[in-house]
Amino acid sequence: MGGAVPLTNNWPQQDFSALVDAEGGLAVFNRGLPEVEVLDAGDGTAVCAVTLLRCVDWLSRDDLPTRNRINAGPTLATPDAQLIGRHTFHCAVMPFTGDPLTADVKGRSDAWRTPTPVVQGVADDSTSGGAGLLAGSDPRVAITAVKRAERGEALIVRLVNLADVAVTETLHLELPVIDVEKVSLVETELHIYRDDPVPTHGGRRVRVPLAPHEIATLALALAGPETEESS
């Protein structure tokens, strides 16, 4: 049915979209706005149009120009889907030079889309500081998950190589790593070959080789504070 329905310029998005040329670009961040369209402004430039509301009066119709006499579902009136009322939307723009990977557009988008929870973490009259649990170093690699393992005490860290070339990411950790291995997405033994991660600097860093566009799930066994003090 691919040729029966006219193509549209609407595309799905999750966290950002970007207009890019040979020198740089403009990224548009969003929170919960999953659709974008690129329009020709008629003067040689492009316009990034982010869909704010998708208000419909019918579940499906066959007389719409986007359907070409083919229903996508029941011809059912849905007046409540008009989304009448006041709405608040959140977007941000980021101009950048170079390409989106070296400009760390993904990292900036993640930071903007995820508000930082604010809690008091130090006692009164004390000075906050120190490193966090872990940090990456290569903007071409996104950290997409940090969690406790479903089984056992390991720390699960998921990485995605956004580049089309192999890279080696270096993770910096607050607690030393006793052991680390790549596991599957469901945290079981990995049955395909992947280059192993290697702890360095007394376990404070982990070098992670990543193939082009590889999604890697790491299981890290960390030394506890008492282990670190005794060493």
Question: What does this molecule look like?
Answer:
By secondary structure, the chain is mainly beta. It folds into 2 domains: 10-98, no CATH class; 134-225, Immunoglobulin-like, CATH 2.60.40. It is 6% helix and 35% strand. It contains 2 helices and 14 strands, in the order E-E-E-E-E-E-H-E-E-E-E-E-E-E-E-H. It has helices at 105-113, 225-230; strands at 10-12, 16-20, 24-30, 35-40, 46-50, 91-97, 134-135, 141-148, 155-161, 167-173, 177-183, 198-200, 205-210, 215-222. It has a 4-stranded antiparallel beta sheet with strand order 7-10-13-12, with no helix packed on it. Strand 2 (16-20) and strand 3 form a beta hairpin.
Topology:
Layout (H helix, E strand, L loop, with lengths): L9 E3 L3 E5 L3 E7 L4 E6 L5 E5 L40 E7 L7 H9 L20 E2 L5 E8 L6 E7 L5 E7 L3 E7 L14 E3 L4 E6 L4 E8 L2 H6 L1
Antiparallel strand pairs: 1-4, 2-3, 3-6, 4-5, 7-10, 8-9, 9-14, 10-13, 11-14, 12-13
Q: State Rg.
A: 23 Å
Q: What is the distance, rounded to the nearest whole angstrom, between the alpha carbons of the first and last residues?
A: 66 Å
The biggest sheet amounts to: 4 strands, antiparallel
Tally of structural domains: 2
Separate helix tally: 2
Number of strands: 14
Q: By helix and strand content, what is the structural category?
A: mainly beta
* Quaternary form: single chain
Mean pLDDT: 87
Order of helices and strands: EEEEEEHEEEEEEEEH
Low-confidence stretches: none
Helix content: under 10%
| Broad CATH class of the largest domain | Mainly Beta
Q: What is the CATH topology of the largest domain?
A: Immunoglobulin-like
Task: Give the percentage of residues in beta strands.
Answer: 35-45%
The CATH level-2 architecture of the largest domain is identified as Sandwich
Shape: elongated
Main sheet: strand order: 7-10-13-12
